[in-house]
Amino acid sequence: MPQTRHSVASVPTYPAGAPHITGRARGGSRIGAHRHAEGQLVYCASGALAATTAYGTWIAPANRVTWTPPGFQHAHRCHGDTDVRIVVLPAELCARLPRRPSVCAVGPLLREAILALTDRHETRPEVYARLRAVLVDELVETAEQSLHLPEPRDDRLRAVTELLHQDPAQMTTLAEFGRAVGAGERTLTRLFHRELGMSFLKWRTMLRIHRALVHLADGRSVTDTSIACGWSNPTSFIEAFTTLTGQTPGRYQAGLRAPRTTPD
């Protein structure tokens, strides 16, 4: 089955029958909100990708893959020089995979299956189908490891998260935010758990990690990034970053600078 190549920044819908798409995108490149009848897996062999849906934003460095089921509106933004691999899954192959957008860890076999599917210019249909079946099997067995930043619907909670988006490094307490937006600390605490499924401190940490991924992709040092994102010292930042992403900030930056694995 022939490979279909397109500029990553201009993919509003899949061409009929396109099995996959590959391309390189500069940091800051965006794909506007759109949806597909098929499911899509997006993997960055280098760089990082943010995917935004109505449920919030996911970010996937090179050890994660994003999954968007058929019919979900989504948008993407690339961070760093990004080697993007998109594998298209027909709707009939999506039943075993999550029904909502998600991010999964990429182990060695899953990575090689994605690269094999997207590197080959010509692949016999039966070979392609077997490789894709291996990919689906690996995804079914892979635990979700989501760098998901959910966004609220309640106006009071949205006011708080917008203030944090403006300055993730601020040390404002939830009680202080409550006074600013006209809501009690207990009310906001309940709203964080009910709407976002996590505490105020965990949501703020996830926001800071998202921002740190962007700063590192832009070439800022680990020390400068830790300060800009609100950590008191680089050691505590490295620990939090490694816990949530599965790799150190230095290894993440090294992956962003990885040599090209496909032609432009």
TrEMBL record:
Tree of life domain: Bacteria
Return the PANTHER family for the record.
HTH-TYPE TRANSCRIPTIONAL REGULATOR NIMR
Question: Does Transcription regulation count among this protein's keywords?
Answer: yes
Q: What is this protein called?
A: HTH-type transcriptional regulator RipA
Instruction: Please give the Gene Ontology molecular function terms for this protein.
Output: DNA-binding transcription factor activity; sequence-specific DNA binding
Q: Which residues form the signal peptide?
A: none
The membrane-spanning stretches of this chain are none
> Which keywords accompany this UniProt record?
DNA-binding, Repressor, Transcription, Transcription regulation
| Short name of any one Pfam family annotated for the protein | AraC_binding
Q: Where is this region: Disordered?
A: 1-30
HTH araC/xylS-type domain: residues covered: 158-255
